[in-house]
Fold each of these.
Amino acid sequence: MSGVGNWWVNGEPAESVSILDRGFTYADGLFETVAVRDGKPRFLDYHLERLSDGCRRLAIPYPAGVTDELCSIAAGCRFGTAKIILTRGAGARGYAPPEKLASTRVIGLIAAQPPARLAYEAGVAVRFCDTKVSANSTLAGMKTLARLEQVMARAEWQDAHISEGLMCSDDGLVICGTMTNLFFVANGRLCTSDVSRCGVSGVMRRVVMEQAGECGLECIEVDIDRQDLYQVKEIFLTNSLIGIWPVRQLQDTGLEIGSITRRLMAKLVAIGVTECAI
Amino acid sequence: MSGVGNWWVNGEPAESVSILDRGFTYADGLFETVAVRDGKPRFLDYHLERLSDGCRRLAIPYPAGVTDELCSIAAGCRFGTAKIILTRGAGARGYAPPEKLASTRVIGLIAAQPPARLAYEAGVAVRFCDTKVSANSTLAGMKTLARLEQVMARAEWQDAHISEGLMCSDDGLVICGTMTNLFFVANGRLCTSDVSRCGVSGVMRRVVMEQAGECGLECIEVDIDRQDLYQVKEIFLTNSLIGIWPVRQLQDTGLEIGSITRRLMAKLVAIGVTECAI
């Protein structure tokens, strides 16, 4: 099995977790996927801020030493992906969280290859998925271990020419890609789907919104339905591992890579997301 | 740690699963919680029907021999709980399900005590939870490993006098308890919350609907909002381990244990859910 990487559980090399770990039995935990470039975890502060915010919301104790552990593991890795999984820990059956539980901290490092240049230079083709993204204001924004809907959405296509699938909520709003956040330009304004009821508040989404602000571009969080997305001028996708992917095709409709997308890609390159250079 | 039980992974005694198991990384799997009474798994056919239906919907191969394995494990256990966890298996990072993957089958048996008599004789007190249940028509009805919202809802109270918490969808419909399905009598008709957009299609819910039919009582699946639930005549909760719990108190409002509830409890006793005898 390729792409397995090396793993540590609570600081010790390990390949398994307890059957009773609540991450396994109930998806009772969170994770982060961090780009490692030239021996350093990229935007680590933002990742750990989201993780600790999630811990606070879920009442999972945030473990000490994660920053040091990640930096130490990433050192020596030129291009890879670090993954942090944090669960409430192992406990007996039943949803009620036991009072005293030691959380489980799983960290892995997987060597990777840079994404294909073509995705940045020519843009990517995307489709709509039938699988819905869950609406739940209690959990929205967090990167919880409950990713089954993303798995099901990603299983909808095998065509290698399709890079990503867009997911809608049950009430028809376009929320995100299976592994990306969604941005677009409508009426001259930069927009991103609201993630207060569904979806994940991505680290690269945050970075792009901040970089837009630095360009004097206001970015607004909006609701958009599927039909209206065909009317917008520019569409692009973001995540921590890819930076920005411009969309050149939405189902059968072609799009241009627009000037705002190009400008934001250049801004990302300037702050170290060098994959986006075109 | 009490209530841990004995566990088997793919037929072998085991205490752990791979860090790469997609059940752990993505909640990419299903589970069943089965009452074991006098050496036999109760309503096993219904549990395995829901499990195989879920496998079909998720495209996870349904493993051979589960029935035999469960019956063999349950033999000799007078009163306990069997748990079956079925995941897509261990694979490299990424939501896309690898083409060839061997699913992981985890089975456990945990000794248990019968629920307190008082819950049946006097009824239980329930509260409303703030934590929402996710709306997602793609996943609704299945008992997936994504149970974080149930964990968060159950963590909302520690008062031992409250037996269960009711969960609503983001749009305000009352869907279920954290570990139970909801029934009530409104306008003289037996009703249960619709679970086609949210919630789990419980095995005991199915049994009760069938037993109602045998009594000549039609049971309808309806939408009900929180305020309207205070207007109903009888409320009861169901799951595989408890049978029926009559509700005697909803927040601060008292309820009588009604005649329809009592009749259905008696019907359950007659088919082997002896916990419900009052």
Note: The mean pLDDT of chain A is 95.
Amino acid sequence: MVSKEEMIAWFKSEFPQARYEIEDFTTDSIIVRHRVEERDLRPGGTVSGPTMMTLADTAIYVALLRQIGFVALAVTTSLNFNFLRKPVANADILAECKLLKLGRSLAVGEVSIYSDGDEAPVAHAVGTYSIPPKR
Amino acid sequence: MVSKEEMIAWFKSEFPQARYEIEDFTTDSIIVRHRVEERDLRPGGTVSGPTMMTLADTAIYVALLRQIGFVALAVTTSLNFNFLRKPVANADILAECKLLKLGRSLAVGEVSIYSDGDEAPVAHAVGTYSIPPKR
Amino acid sequence: MVSKEEMIAWFKSEFPQARYEIEDFTTDSIIVRHRVEERDLRPGGTVSGPTMMTLADTAIYVALLRQIGFVALAVTTSLNFNFLRKPVANADILAECKLLKLGRSLAVGEVSIYSDGDEAPVAHAVGTYSIPPKR
Amino acid sequence: MVSKEEMIAWFKSEFPQARYEIEDFTTDSIIVRHRVEERDLRPGGTVSGPTMMTLADTAIYVALLRQIGFVALAVTTSLNFNFLRKPVANADILAECKLLKLGRSLAVGEVSIYSDGDEAPVAHAVGTYSIPPKR
């Protein structure tokens, strides 16, 4: 199992410009914060869909790597995304991920996305990763 | 809001042959049990996919009607289903549903399905219902 | 590659009670007909959701086995289903499947479902199968 | 019905920096090209997931607006995305969209994404838009 410190260090080296912070990091729940900036916003004052989808995908990746280690070749095979409410513009967004399944070749994660400070989810995602066979 | 007793009575009159029992019935969680019988099984000793998908859809329907009343015309518009593990043959299956969104014209529910007695979900679903406009 | 005759024979021996007929059977398109009977119908005169979902899943299975042979252990891992229109009650339903991907461990198929005689699809599905590693 | 010229003009004024070109524009098929640039790429030489997901969403939006006119309030409610193959880095990506359903309050579109010059799709999406009631 990867520790929170190892994950943070790895993330920094792999995605130096990413505006993510790993907040929760346990078997039951991974929470990743995305620091929302101007360029993430859409006209009308809301966080863009791609920003949320990328965060959801990242949260599943973090939850998966926590269990299997830094397997660079794990790739997303599907992402099912539901937009539930308009996120507010002046708040970070948080993704909470639970792994529903961790099989030998497939992992499935479920993600709820929140505007920081709000209880009702703004989006929900279910994503699947393909895990390469061990050599 | 519909009471548990009203829901059970309505269910019995609408779906007299259904083998469902409403166990939990709160805002945060709806649990519906399906009493598994021989005809629900697949060769190899497992509960069939359609049995699980129908239960998931039903659980969202129950969660939705609890909030909006017995609106017969609410219809499923999408069901996204992930099969996670083989359910065991000799146990009932339970669906736990949370409504992620209840809008004026759309509701989104999330469902985890379990074999009775097991903690790991055997399937997960996200479904959408269209709610007819009020006349 | 499996021939149409081999597929029909295999289907008959594996699913003797199934009311399916394989109509089209080429690399580009698989069409499976489901002979609708009384028990497939829902009040209001329409084909039930589970009947359509089962047919969609079957059509992907047929398209997949056509390519990889009779691998009994290929299992559905996800099914994403959209209900588009009410199918009519007095017509068979037809599922047309295209394989979007056939990888070593994953296959993805897309299915449109029609009421026989109608041009507008009544439902659409995307499903994923996990293919067991070759021994 | 919106003409191709009207759509192109509207797009330019609404999304001046977008690198999209509308190629096909008929009832049966909408094709939108995304001119891939350095910033769309991922390490390993492939087009990023968010770039493809945004293009898929845009193609459905174009197909929908073509039918209903420039209704600014149509919003994506779900996007189901399957990653099929690695797109190549040195080619544009093209999204071909078909509207599966155009109802009063919901539209469903299906999209295949290709690397320009390749026949096998690199991704597939099904998305749903909510259409605001007419005032």
Note: The interface with chain B takes residues 77-78, 80, 105-106, 128, 130, 133 of chain D (CB under 8 Å).
